[in-house]
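explain this:
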Amino acid sequence: MTSDDVVSSTRMGDDGLAVTESAGPGADSVICTMRVPADPASVRIVRHEIVQDLLNRDLDEEIVGEAEMVASELLTNAVRHARPLSDGTIRVRWKIRAEVVEVEVTDGGGATVPKPAPRTVWLSSGRGLRIVRSLAHEWGVTEDRTGNVVWATLGGPSRRRAT
């Protein structure tokens, strides 16, 4: 299959933001993408879209709940600690292959590379990536030409490896 063969469609989410769906690599693979404002209000919108999409695909409710939490944590971190992409948005993508869901958030990068905060009772924040790490089969951070991509795989192994 070439990139010209990939079928893509766009639908409007409940909050008026576009969700683009395209075929992923493999027969049972789908990729959904949203670009959202770099604003805390976007977290609720993305959670809602991911949950509705995964439920509509009849995925296990446990994976749906985990994907909701992971997306929320990753997007919250991007809004709080990173710059937006050049168009002022943050890209959220979820990939579905059979019962495996991979959630990724791409931002414009920040002053530091995302990593879990050390375990301590004194910190009032910084637990988000520890939550992601506890739920995900794999997770990681990669840098691309636009910034950081933080991703997590739920429900089984991915084709990526955390570094």
